[in-house]
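re: ur question from yesterday

yeah so i grabbed the chain u mentioned. its 517 aa long if i counted rite. heres the sequnce exactly as i have it in my notes:
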Amino acid sequence: MEHALAYPEPPDFAADTTGPGVPSAFSTPRRRLTPALRRTLAVCVTGCLFLGGALLRPDGDVRAPSALPGPAGRAVIAASAGAPAALPDLTALIAEREAALRAHPRADRTWAALGAAYVERGTRTADPASYTAAERALRRALALRPRRNVAVLDGLAELAAARGDWRSARGWGEAAVRLAPDHWPAYAALVDACQGLGDDKAAGRNLEKLSGLTAGTAVSLRTAAVYRGRGWREDAAAVLADAAARAGTPTERAALLHRGGELAWERGESADALRHFDAALAADPRYPAALAGRARALASLGRASQAAQAYRRAFAQRPAPEYALELGELYESLHLTGAARAQYGAVRARAAARRAHGVDDALVLGRFEADHGDPAAAVRGLRARWRRAPGVEAADALGWALHRAGRDTEAVEWLRRAADRRKAGGPRSGLMMYHLGVVERRLGRYGAARRHLGEALRINPAFSPLFAPRARQALAALGEPPGGGPAQMWPPRPRTAAPARPKPGRAVPHRQAAERR
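ran it thru and got these structure tokens back, copy pasting raw so excuse formatting
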């Protein structure tokens, strides 16, 4: 939402204020502020103007000090800092913008702000109809002002990213950069788009530009994501912890703690992950992503009943297909076949509803079909997904779908591609190592299979309530390597050539010398 809001350029605070009437002892050297600091000051000035307008009556009288910004005003302030707004504040902002447009239907900036707000609501609530409403609002804003409308380009980039259309998101972000090279929301959109496309180098370059233009939660979240993509999990966790300590709103703090919990769970630190998710929910109880993360951590700790309850609450607040898939696999691990089947039906239903509004859930749907549905359909869908966005997750999911379809020779090549990318600097994944180990075992490559199955359990011993026990069973079936080792531990010594023997009838040189003496 914040990308559609425009703010005035800050005044030139670097101007030289010394003059002949100022004593030299008070003069300071002329300095230019960095772009990031100038924009930070701009946000502060904008907030002061907003609060000043709220505290002053039209006749100039000052209101009571308790007159603070309302819910819509808090959403605007959160947007200016690049932070997520609380859902009630976001709802109030949408209602306010809709009322304003009924009175002034040709206000293009208001249409752009409304479209961006719809995008954030769709992302936070998994309501795909919000994306269709956002597209209508943004197209209306573009029709009213078709040229140099950076706010609309920001909103369209956010909308494409929310739908999983990473190529379009990158195109809209690059168009915004061409119009306004110092516009930080465009670089934020480009970081997200490049990561979605698997272009980690371009994501890093855009992150550097973003960090030079602004600071705040938007930068911290993307810095942590880029660091995670490089395998720097400790650095990512430190960035998130520092940002959470500085968070200005409860929802902002919840978003940062939720990301920190995800990193801890990926490392296999389920208890630490649970603490992060609990702290996020204490900050904002209506943050469903943290509730789903809590369910995942509880399942890893063996608290299946509490995990299932948390998953159900998360799905009620945000009916995302990935939550239904995780809950179904939890039920299947508990041998609750009927309950698992109901959740798997919800996966297909939610993916179909979202697809009708332009959302690409091919990755989640492909994983579901590979393990619980039609593997051939999974292969077809994931091949198309790879062509749209060739990332590590897509390569792993396609390789596993090929294995489930009985094509192990082709599958192992895709799985090795994903694993090699991880080893080259990406984050380690227990599920990916499990996939590779299973296929290698099927192909008779027992040493490699033993190594990768063991690595999966070392990364995260409870990476899945359904597949982690299967990884242990497969590793136990492989057993230990044969004792004694190979028969020949060292390469054989090179054979030296024997000295040439003299021909019969010819004396050797030292005999000839003795005879002459």
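noticed a couple things. Confidence is low (pLDDT under 50) at residues 1-33, 43-66. also The radius of gyration is 31 Å.
anyway ttyl
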